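If your schedule permits, I should be very grateful for your opinion on a structural question. I have a record of one protein: its chain in single-letter code and its fold written as discrete structure tokens. Would you kindly read the sequence against the tokens and tell me how you understand this chain to fold? Thank you for your consideration; the sequence and its tokens are set out here.


***
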Amino acid sequence: MDVKDIIKPENLVYKKSSILTDKVMHYCPGCSHGVVHKLIAEVIEEMDIQEQTIAVSPVGCSVLAYNYLSVDWHEAAHGRAPAVATAIARLKPEKYVFTYQGDGDLASIGTAEIIHACNRGENIVVIFINNGIYGMTGGQMAPTTLEGMPTSTSPYGRDVKMTGQPLRITELIAQIPGTEYVTRQAVHTPAAVRKCKKAILKAFQNIGEKKGTQFVEVVSTCSSGWKLNPVKSNEWMVENMFPYYPLGDLKG
């Protein structure tokens, strides 16, 4: 039997989304970014909105997402993606606009931008990757770093007396009237991946219906920053991150 007789549409079980480019991803082994990229690509393809999608990424590991997702991209200054996305969404209201941001970016340097964009109810999707650390720039403590968690700038663990409690930014955003759908997901198991994709799909469908700001947090791993292998990173995330950042819908 010739291979062409096997590779037919009716025999196809899975194929890579056409929204994903052919570039080899640079992310560290075990990193959650690649899985989230895949889910975003599948949602855009299934909704048939590639030509209508505009994405914004700032500084950090998320900045290189434009290498892997074949949509129009704008790069923003560190933390300023919601402000740039606001301008795009207002100038091009027919477009599907989303930001892709890490926790050091969104919950620290860009706190003002995300809070005020949500307060205005800007019609954008925010994909928020929370791994509790500054990944690209050296593993420093982030606003979301857990109490006692060691980082390059808190080698003995986060001291809340000095730096305050880890910031549950998603709970804050859920209280803002301008947000329509706020959820916290993960991608560490097949079941979690399916739930996360469903959440991303709902968010994109909602901005298509002009429902305001959609916020999807993805609790993620950073095996390099955490100094753990991929398997141990997932275990550590479940044991330590999930109790403080519980998964599920917060609003909408």
In short: The CA atoms of residues 123 and 212 lie 4 Å apart.
